[in-house]
């Protein structure tokens, strides 16, 4: 009798030491996943990941990449997932380089998720993602669809939040994108002008920016958007391409955007796609757009596009530094004050962001410094 009692007492002590509960939420320690060993060409999806359309309670949002992962069960099909799940799903299905994947997921988790319970909604608010403990993040975690973080204006297939549906695919916007494809696309197996290329993406972004500036009185191309929106355009060429041919064809891109499913016989990239490669493509796309509209800017009360007030030195050095500053400006300052598991999680996530976008450009260690709700 004595031995089992002692053992169960010790067992309970161990469990109790691991559980940290705040505001009724149980902490989950985030870990940086090990890099998978198979990083080559591979057909996606495999048999274990069939397409299943989302149900009414499943979260989907502005990212066709994440929606597709959820529709195939590479992350939870309910659209609420952990840091590790999204990082590993992105590596497995898209061969995104793991540190770059970690940076994007970490940034989204710190701005729009709950890093105490390690949950992020790829769509809107969800009962599965409670508000941050202690009220440090306002009354709700917004999810990826919440405007003002990575989600912002001048998207390729989503409307601006101030004037329309910023989360769901919009046929009319994609039809306009296809007009640019018809004009600038390369010739391929599916016919003349059927391959998305840099010139096509530049034309799409030029129109996204010009049109939204004209029709959206609250148009704001934030420093985050000035970098992220061109990187998202680079995803179309660098990640959605069939890894066997490196071609982003009309039917392939249509499958991701319209149906949020992998095209038949699709292969992920043959080698990990790094932030450096995607950033290079993003710069090439940006170079084809009118330089006066690619800067951080917004509409004034008269509807004229005016540049944003630059961030304080040294973050005004270049767009990359402005991006870095703007990211931490959208993370609740209370996260920088965290203790216990939350502190460990915030440190891991903030380090993943700093590793990708801090660096020598501004060489400053930032911690979250934004308002609780932004
Ligand atoms: C893994 C490869 C990924 C691909 C191929 C991808 C692809 C894209 C594309 C093409 C867009 C632009 C949609 C448009 O302009 O209409 C986009 C937007 C977005 N992505 Fe992803 N993405 C990836 C990873 C991620 C990750 C890991 C996250 C966060 C966890 C994320 C969050 C977002 C958000 C919040 C937007 C909305 C931005 C906006 O247009 O306002 N993405 N993504
Ligand atoms: C596709 O791109 C990768 C990486 O740049 C390269 O190694 C490969 O040779 C390319 N494949 C084709 C068919 O062009
Ligand atoms: C999307 O799915 C529908 C229904 O399965 C199919 O008819 C259509 O060809 C698909 N479109 C693309 C671009 O994959
Ligand atoms: C990808 O390329 C391979 C080799 O050319 C081809 O067999 C396959 O059908 C292509 N898949 C798509 C979605 O284009
Ligand atoms: C950080 O903690 C200090 C000390 O507890 C407190 O005074 C301050 O208001 C906190 N800041 C935020 C942003 O929560
Ligand atoms: C960053 O600044 C520190 C001191 O402020 C300096 O020692 C270090 O070399 C700098 N690193 C880079 C990459 O510029």
From TrEMBL:
Domain Heme haloperoxidase family profile, by residue range, is: 47-280
Would I find Methyltransferase among this entry's keywords?
no
Q: Which cofactor does it need?
A: heme b
> What Gene3D superfamilies does the database record attribute to this sequence?
Chloroperoxidase-like
Q: Which Pfam family is an annotated match for this chain, by its short name?
A: Peroxidase_2
Coiled coil where? none
The similarity annotation says:
Belongs to the chloroperoxidase family.
Identification of the protein by name:
Chloroperoxidase
């Amino acid at each position: 009798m004595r031995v089992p009692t002692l053992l169960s007492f010790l067992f309970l002590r161990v469990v109790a030491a691991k559980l940290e509960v705040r505001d009724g939420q149980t902490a989950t320690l985030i870990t940086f996943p090990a890099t998978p060993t198979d990083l080559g060409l591979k057909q996606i999806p495999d048999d274990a990941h069939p397409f299943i359309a989302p149900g009414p309670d499943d979260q989907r949002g502005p990212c066709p990449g994440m929606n597709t992962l959820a529709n195939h069960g590479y992350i939870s099909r309910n659209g609420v997932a952990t840091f590790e799940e999204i990082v590993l799903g992105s590596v497995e299905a898209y061969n995104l380089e793991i540190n770059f994947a970690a940076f994007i997921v970490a940034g989204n988790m710190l701005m729009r998720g709950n890093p105490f319970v390690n949950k992020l909604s790829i769509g809107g608010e969800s009962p599965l993602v409670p508000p941050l403990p202690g009220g440090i993040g306002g009354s709700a975690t917004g999810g990826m669809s919440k405007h003002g973080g990575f989600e912002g204006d001048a998207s390729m297939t989503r409307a601006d939040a101030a004037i329309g549906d910023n989360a769901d695919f919009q046929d009319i916007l994609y039809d306009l994108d296809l007009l640019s494809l018809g004009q600038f696309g390369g010739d391929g197996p599916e016919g003349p002008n059927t391959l998305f290329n840099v010139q096509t993406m530049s034309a799409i972004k030029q129109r996204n920016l010009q049109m939204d500036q004209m029709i959206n009185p609250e148009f704001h191309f934030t420093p985050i958007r000035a970098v992220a929106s061109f990187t998202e355009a680079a995803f179309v060429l660098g990640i959605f391409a069939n890894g066997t041919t490196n071609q982003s064809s009309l039917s392939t891109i249509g499958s991701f955007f319209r149906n949020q499913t992998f095209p038949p016989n699709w292969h992920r990239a043959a080698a990990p796609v790094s932030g450096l490669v995607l950033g290079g493509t993003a710069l090439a796309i940006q170079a084809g757009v009118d330089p006066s509209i690619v800067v951080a800017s917004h509409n004034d009360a008269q509807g004229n596009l005016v540049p944003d007030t630059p961030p304080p030195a040294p973050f005004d050095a270049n767009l990359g530094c402005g991006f870095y500053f703007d990211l931490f400006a959208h993370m609740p300052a209370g996260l920088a004050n965290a203790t216990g598991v939350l502190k460990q999680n915030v440190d891991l996530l903030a380090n993943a962001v700093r590793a990708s976008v801090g660096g020598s450009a501004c060489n400053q260690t930032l911690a979250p410094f934004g308002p609780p709700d932004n």
